[in-house]
Amino acid sequence: MTMLRASTILLGGLFALLFLGTAHAQPPLYWPAGPAHDPAPTLAVPAAPREPEPPVLSWRPLRMSVSLESQTQWMLPDTTRALWGQKVQAGGGLSAQYEAMRLGPAQTLGVDLALVSQKTTRWTGTNVRQDTSDSRLALGASLAHSLWSWCAPYGRVAVGVGATKFSLGNQYADLSDTRWFVEGTLGAGIALRTPSLRLGKTADSFALTGILRVEGGYLVGNSQSFALKSASLAGEETPIPRSNVDVGTASHRAPYLRVSLGLGF
User: Fold this and answer.
1) For a designed S-S bond to 110, which of 99, 130, 145, 186 qualifies (C-beta 3.0 to 4.6 A apart)?
2) Second-level CATH architecture of 56-232+242-264
3) What Cα–Cα distance (Å) separates residue 238 from each residue in 176, 228, 259?
4) Measuring CA to CA, how many Å separate 46 from each of 38, 50, 51?
5) Measured between alpha carbons, how far is 63 from 99 in angstroms, rounded to an integer?
6) What's the pTM value of the predicted model, to 2 decimals?
7) What are the domain boundaries of the chain?
8) Predicted confidence (pLDDT) per residue in 171-211, tens digit
9) What angle do CA 83, 88, 94 make, to 5 degrees?
């Protein structure tokens, strides 16, 4: 019995030694808390510091747009209302704008060229037709700040030149006079845009963007004095002397509202 117990104890000790030897032979990778095998360290190259970008001026526009224009004015002086009425009927035209200078991450300076025509028709108390029309070409500069990618308030100044034609009579050229004017405008507005629609697969492919601008402000120009003249009748051999009809002087100043809708690319 003593020999049997000694044999049992000896066999147990041998099994214990074999178990411990096997456990210590396991590589650390198979232990749950064993250290991870890190890859060979690589030398990190520090990135060069980025210098702040200066304002960018380019002959190639950063963003260009072509728009349909609509504009109306509210005449202030009474002498001007006698010619135009209290409100000038909305006119239409075309404009083109591009942003040539970036002043900061969200500030851009743009220039635009707009051609707008307007016409107002009224009937006097004696049932005589009165037509007042003008066409103007304006060059403007605007400073915009992008609050979000789709919204940018802006301020705009512009100078323009144009001609106003005033006529009285049932025929447009019965009694008429044309006067030139120079005007300046100061306004502010907001520009809204849609996401760009790319027409290709690459990042540099052509893209279109819808743009809506709403602008209000004030315009001032030189006064205009109209003296209506009667046109000579066709085929009249001896023109009958006709005297001019002085209709007074119209001041050229009014608040205005300008709306444009177009495509940017």
Assistant:
1) 99
2) Beta Barrel (2.40)
3) 21, 20, 50
4) 22, 12, 15
5) 6
6) 0.70
7) 56-232+242-264
8) 655 788 899 999 999 999 999 998 888 777 766 677 888 99
9) 125
